[in-house]
Write the structure tokens for this entry.
Amino acid sequence: MATSATRLRPNILIAGTPGTGKSTLAAQVADSLGFTHIDVGKEIRENDLHSGYDEEYKCHVLDEDKLLDHLEDRLNATDGGYVLDYHGCDFFPERWFDLVAVLRCDNTILYDRLKTRGYPEKKLRENVECEIFGTLLDEATDSYPADVVKEFQSDTLEQMEENAEVIVDFAKNWKPSSVSDMES
């Protein structure tokens, strides 16, 4: 079982409220580094890692145990080099990640993004409230060491490009203590 002390390349989790740009950023970072991108939502759907479908929220209900079992061999591997994106993060083992990047977004921009996606009103409202209260950032800071969690603003394409550069630089210069030196 690899840890940040034994992994050859870092593993990165990009988390945040739906609509903050996680999947886009994760794909860009993975492509730039030659890492493997894992869109956790897609993994859940394509591998039946759920306990059913929630009609009210129009999404699958995550089975955390199935998902963790499905990812375990890859994330425990000594090679590392994975970039995962998912809105939640508190159920992933701490040892899997060397950086947890939490994307934040202005509420008005987020509302418009989610409205464009056709989110039901209740789901849209709850996700915007989640962002207002910083729920996912709190979840990350409660679940991982402070030097592993970094907050990134993700309102514009320019910010996304800057975020990608910072994360790519982190990975290229990665050492177990390098997270705390990274500027966000």
